[in-house]
Amino acid sequence: MSHTEQTPQPPVTAKVPVTRTHHGDTFIDNYEWLREKDSPEVLEHLRAENAYAEAVTANQESLREAIFQEIKERTVETDLSVPARKRGWWYFTRTAEGSQYSIHCRVAATDTGDIAADWTPPAIEAGVSIEGEQVLLDGNLEAEGKPFFSLGGLTVSEDGNLLAYAQDNAGDERFTLRIKDLTTGELLPDVIENVFYGLNFSPDGTRLFYTVVDESWRPHQIKAHTLGTDPETDVVIIQEDDPGMWLGFDLSADRTELMISIGNSEYSETLALDLNDENAVPVMLLSREHRILHSMDPITLVGERAYVITHDRDALNNMVSLLPAGQVGLPYGQQEWATILEHQDTVKVEGTAATASHLVIAVRKDTTERVQILPLAGLGTDAQQPAVEPAFDEELYTASLAGAELESPMIRLHYTSDFTPSRVYDYTLADGTLTLRKQTQVNNYDSSDYLATREWATAADGTKIPLTILRRAGVTNESPNPVIVYGYGSYEASMDPGFGIPRLSLLDRGVVFVIAHVRGGGELGRQWYLDGKKLTKKNTFTDFVDSTKYLLDTGWADPSRVVALGGSAGGLLMGAVANLAPQLYTGIIAQVPFVDALTSILDPELPLSALEWEEWGNPIEDAEVYAYMKSYTPYENVAALPYPKIAAVTSLNDTRVLYVEPAKWVAKLREETTGGEPIIMKIEMDGGHGGASGRYEGWKTRAWDYAFALDTLGLNPAGA
Length: 720
Hints:
It is built from 13 helices and 38 strands. The chain is an alpha+beta fold. The strands form 9 sheets. It has an 8-stranded mixed sheet, sandwiched between helices. The model has no long low-confidence stretch (mean pLDDT 93).
């Protein structure tokens, strides 16, 4: 923007002091009035924020459009999934060029007795329907005329005749459940409102199981709907009243048991419901009273039912044990758990899945996720065979289980790395053959043009922090570069290697994109997470700052061109580093940022707050937790500092991080900053936690963020 034009002025945010007192500490909050979502003043203020953000970033419009077009041109829009076999059908999705949503389809499978032929997926071509193809659900038709569209579940009955699906047309993750008769194409009269994720039919197709959330958005009931009856009479199978526990369910591999899991990030409980007996009630398999974080998979061994348990009982990184079903009723101390996989300090066990012949184990080793396969024969005894791990040729990659059907002779694996677009393999259980079924096509792309390497920064306390450094192949640290540092570091979530088309638009402009795998994530096992939560949470923030300093010290980063990027709990990280080290960053982008964490967690009525106590501690009851959180939460710690250019990006209907958090934060930053850089908030007026619905809208959101980053790094050809 030339200096002859008037510099846009930010909206003036009115101050309405609200006093909050906890543990003898009083905080005066001038901007809490912005929480009143339905107030005309608040909506007017949010629109003014958008207008200011538009004015400040007007010079980025052509860059945004260029990035959007690059993403669109690189994306092979007519994308097809590899058909997955379930019972007598191959299920797959199509995404047609120019359309926003997937089309869910199926075609009948054959059973000739020739394993290779019967389990080789049919070849699906773009725009060419295959003989007998049936459309189950076309997301584009469902979305027509609606402001938002998202599927929260899709399941087909055992006999293949009924489809149940749940859709959301607001972005608030409350879904409407409908059932379609696939033989006639008609919708059944059964319609159930306000269901959450998770749907399954009973084996005979007469009942449908689903989850319901309570007022604070926590899944607290599993219900059963008998087809043809009034949903008002649906039976509650189980209800969980502890506000700190999350409820969910899954079908056993043989589809005879509904496996009910109740838990938080520290311990859990598992019950099973016999689906062959409609009068059955859930049976306790492993109670929460033992304080064991675990998951269970039922298997059949030599004709007997048994449970494979992945658990942290005397095993910080988890181990895998076997419990015969006959011992479930015994007192806990008398049960004999046979060891399948012993605990290792260097390997984290993430979970298991079973087929009729093999156990598949997801593990994390050397920071990355991979899969191990173990025959069921001799499981948990001296006759158990060693686990096999399919080998791949890259150092940093992600290999995960994409599907394991009970009777299948093969399992499906998903493979990706930072510069390898998604691949689908089938792994034959009998001989370990890997068959590549699909390599995602990307236009205008050659993986040899890019490099991903691992370096280690040192934290102030001596801890080594893994960094993933992504760049064009010719870019080195011999001369400093514009750098974007990305971080998350909460909930034991790992930032695993994975291909992303949008990021290429940054790398092609000379940016070095660095992922800082800070404490609080799960990359280096359970301890890595424990060292960045509750009363050690500040390690997450100081690790990010120390990682940035490492990039400056080693010559990777130009000190005047560093942008920090993070979203959700990673947005909390952004807010914290803005207060800790504003001078290190030229700009900060905080997506749906959890920047007013203490206010939110002090209000147990707010969505998901009680569940958050496992992550941050409970500041309502614990004065030490309150004081610790208050010492780092971004909003309370905004001070007279030279804040860099900051963009907070949010959505009005986000239920996980409410828009009010960035709105208050931005107002406080503007009030306090001693710097002259603009601080803006862009708010999506119809969209959820992931932004607007539809892939083009998602690309536009990403293009906005990246154009802001590039402009801040001095890489906008339009200039200032």
